[in-house]
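User: Here's a chain of 100 residues. Predict its fold as tokens.
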Amino acid sequence: MQTYPLHDAENRLFAFEVSNLTLGRRGLCRIVETIPGASLVRRPKAFSWLREDSFCECLVDGELFEAEEPFGDNSRYWVGPHPPRWIAQTERVHDAFQRW
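Assistant: Prediction complete.
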């Protein structure tokens, strides 16, 4: 899967984006469920695209990650820790999406 890495000022991966055209909100959550050490906390609700930008949350080794569609109509989903910052687990989450 094509990903769009986002780096901080020190060139460390802190989040990434994926296309929503081929994935869908529920598909994104299915990928999250394949990550070793991850547990899904929140899935998208019915018609979530109408009312929630943030639609998926999971814990990876105790760190909260979320997926959101900025502005509710973006062509990409943003995936990263909440609050956004560099943490080591982001590489593992990113790798799962690249392997998909």
